[in-house]
Specification:
mainly alpha, 373 residues, single chain
């Protein structure tokens, strides 16, 4: 398929979906049960359960997805619409997840405080939502503080620490795109910004890596590389090297931010350059995971502090919290999160369609009318 004919890049959705699944698996296995069952933290599995690395991949994909359509079409009104919608695109799913946590807290259905000492995670699971729920604080956190003052002591969803980075990173991408047509060498600009921000150990560099990938795709670079058989085996070797590096760094606790940024960027590049992996990311299941990825990421905290923690407590009471049952708890929690995210994504699609129509018919049309007067 000619890259110029594709408005939506399915492999971006697929990678995002698998990354979201990796984050959930990380929280359920490595974090929740990692001390009780050390096998979950066996260092060779680090790459496949590296939640932080998966989050860094999210940021790259955001830069790619946010910039690709505008670079492809040059539609200034589309860029304006994206800028207007971004806050609401992120905030409504955030507010929904926080509202669910608030209702669970008010109903006494959060069990993480009781479950934490059972799994010896007072330092993690036990620190979540340890405050009295208040609707005013819920509104402040979900609509403002999640972006500007995310603190564990007042967070209704601690996993949303990424949202401030996502919002600022999005604004950086939009700022870049506003000047895109005036730039003599947009790819060089993106790479220089990525290198500069990497030097200062900031994750915002990943958004510019995503921009660079979007430019390379539009230029047909990835399609040309897919035709080279040597590249296919080479990218697999690169991924194996990244997995080994991740395992060693995680095992020795010497993983720096520079290394994390490099690994995340290399993982995405390797998948883009490998035709087999690209096809896998375009497969129906991968794309479905991508479609539910944001609800999955935003809502799985509600599962962990309620269902997962409740199962831990009940199994402990009956002296049945063994490895076999822990695996079942993880499987049930993961399945519940997928089902919840699936139905949430249906509501999300309806909301996004409404938001798109509202911006088109109310915001942009009124703005055009006022300029013509």
């Amino acid at each position: 398929m000619n890259p110029e004919s594709r408005i939506r890049i399915e492999e971006v959705d697929g990678i995002r979906g698998w990354a979201a699944l990796c984050v959930i698996a990380f929280h359920l296995s490595w974090e929740t049960f990692g001390i009780l069952v050390p096998q979950f933290r066996f260092w060779p599995t680090k790459f496949f359960l590296d939640g932080p690395l998966a989050v860094y991949v999210f940021f790259i994909l955001s830069g790619d997805a946010l910039s690709y359509r505008y670079m492809l079409t040059g539609n200034a009104s589309g860029l304006t619409k994206s800028i207007i919608k971004r806050y609401f695109r992120l905030t409504i799913p955030i507010a929904t997840s926080c509202l669910i946590v608030y209702l669970l807290m008010k109903s006494g259905l959060t069990w993480n405080g009781i479950a934490a000492p059972i799994v010896h995670r007072e330092d993690w699971l036990g620190k979540f939502i340890q405050f009295a729920p208040n609707f005013g604080s819920l509104v402040r956190y979900a609509f403002i503080e999640v972006y500007v003052h995310h603190a564990l002591g007042s967070s209704y969803n601690p996993f949303l620490w990424t949202m401030s980075i996502e919002m600022i990173g999005s604004l950086l991408v939009f700022s870049y795109l506003i000047t895109f047509k005036q730039q003599k060498n947009p790819l060089a600009t993106a790479l220089v910004c990525a290198a500069f921000l990497t030097y200062f150990d900031t994750l915002f560099s990943l958004f510019f890596s995503g921009i660079a990938f979007a430019i390379l795709r539009i230029k047909g670079y990835f399609d040309r590389i897919h035709a080279a058989k040597m590249t296919q085996s080479g990218t697999l070797l690169i991924l194996a090297g990244i997995a080994a590096t991740d395992a060693f760094a995680g095992h020795t606790n010497h993983q720096s931010m520079h290394l994390s940024i490099f690994m995340a960027t290399t993982v995405v590049a390797a998948i883009y350059l490998n035709s087999t992996l690209t096809k896998l990311m375009r497969a129906r299941f991968s794309v479905w995971l991508g479609e539910i990825s944001f609800p999955l990421y935003a809502l799985h905290f509600t599962i962990i502090v309620s269902l997962t923690s409740w199962l831990i407590v009940k199994l402990h009471v009956h002296n049945q919290l063994n490895v076999h049952n822990i695996v079942l708890v993880i499987a049930m929690s993961l399945l519940s999160a997928l089902v919840l995210a699936h139905f949430a994504s249906i509501a999300e699609q309806w909301y996004l369609a409404w938001l798109n129509n509202f911006v088109n018919n109310r915001v942009l049309s009124q703005g055009a009318a006022s300029r013509s007067e």
